[in-house]
């Protein structure tokens, strides 16, 4: 049961990233003033120039996974400390 929230968040993030369409892609301007869609910019970090949504979603989650795990660890420790100390939110 404790993994349910994390699993749902991961599935939601995966669904959001895979559902990007041509009209809904966030764009950014690079240093060379080229306008790239966010998935294309992310895919260049993996040394591949692809717009395959599944591949880009996998690369995005791979890049964001350490941040998510770290945040979950910090939040989990804080919640555990507060619950042991008897304090409530």
From TrEMBL:
Keywords: Membrane, Transmembrane, Transmembrane helix
Parts of the chain that traverse the membrane: 55-80
Subcellular localization(s) per the UniProt record: Membrane
GO cellular component labels: membrane
Membrane topology, from the record: Multi-pass membrane protein
Full protein name: ABC transporter permease
Organism whose genome encodes this protein: Limnochorda pilosa
